Amino acid sequence: MISANDLSPAELAALLHFHADAGVEWLLEEEAIDRFAEFEAMKAARRPAATQAQQQQPPAGERQTPPRPNAAARPAPAERAASGPQPAIPDGEAVQQARFVAETARSLAELKTAIEAFNGCNLKHSARSTIFASGDVESGIMVIGSAPSAEDDREGAPFSGKSGQLFDKMLAAIGLTRSTVLLTQVIPWRPPGNRAPSAAEMDICRPFIERQIALAEPKAILLLGNFSARFFFGENDTIHGLRGRWKEIAVADCVIPAIASLHPQDLLTAPVNKRLAWNDLLAFQAKLKSLSLLRN
């Protein structure tokens, strides 16, 4: 086996990129462990104990059936349930805590700190990073993606990796950059395996994204991806049915115009849909100009 110490920086970087593209995200051990040898050693250690136990058993005719424990000796159902793994906070209580945490934050900086300290959502325990709003909060322009990808989780920023590179090109095409908009995600933590968040996870995370919008006070919002559009529009149609039409999002005391389009990852998977996204971007650009948020 080739040691990492024998590789040049370029070779090591190429190896790490290879593992990342293959889906490897965590290195659990610094040195390889032969699990098969461990298992064989474990079996060998158990054989003498099993032989000794058999020798100590009485003949078949002399064996007695152990008495069955009475009902009083059995653990109560609540005690049996407590002995197994339990969620740290019930979903309903977690939602209430999330609302309290969000409402008490008076700035985006306070909200970021509060979300990073919040432990009521199971998604946080499997994620590496907490993805929060970044960019220009004074721009009046907000772009909201769905949930962090593996690249976002590694980099700690929304729209990272190849989809992020395409996203930068999409912004540049209508005269914007990452530094001139406010970027965030509906869900601050990456769901394991990039699965869709559950209904309970969505309810827990809703106060956080709504508070981000309330504190930022954007004048126009671009939603990217099927999940993001469904989350805010409250509809079950696909992104192809939800995109390209201006709707209104009501958050706190604000009503904000929003338009949905395809996520950059969708465009990498199906490049033929870039023309649809381009039409959505032109509509978003026209709205920004009408609101004096973008120079002509």
TrEMBL record:
Keyword Transferase among UniProt keywords: no
Record's keyword terms, sorted: 4Fe-4S, DNA damage, DNA repair, Hydrolase, Iron, Iron-sulfur, Metal-binding
EC category: hydrolase
GO biological process terms on file: DNA repair
Record keyword Translocase present: no
GO molecular function: 4 iron, 4 sulfur cluster binding; metal ion binding; uracil DNA N-glycosylase activity
Ranges for domain Uracil-DNA glycosylase-like: 132-282
Top-level taxon in the UniProt lineage: Bacteria
EC number in record: 3.2.2.27
Region of interest: Disordered: 44-90
Coiled coil regions, renumbered to chain: none
SUPFAM superfamilies attached to this UniProt entry: Uracil-DNA glycosylase-like
UniProt feature, compositional bias: Low complexity: 47-82
Catalytic reactions on record: Hydrolyzes single-stranded DNA or mismatched double-stranded DNA and polynucleotides, releasing free uracil
PANTHER family given in the database record: TYPE-4 URACIL-DNA GLYCOSYLASE, TYPE-5 URACIL-DNA GLYCOSYLASE
Family affiliation: Belongs to the uracil-DNA glycosylase (UDG) superfamily. Type 4 (UDGa) family.
Descriptive protein name: Type-4 uracil-DNA glycosylase
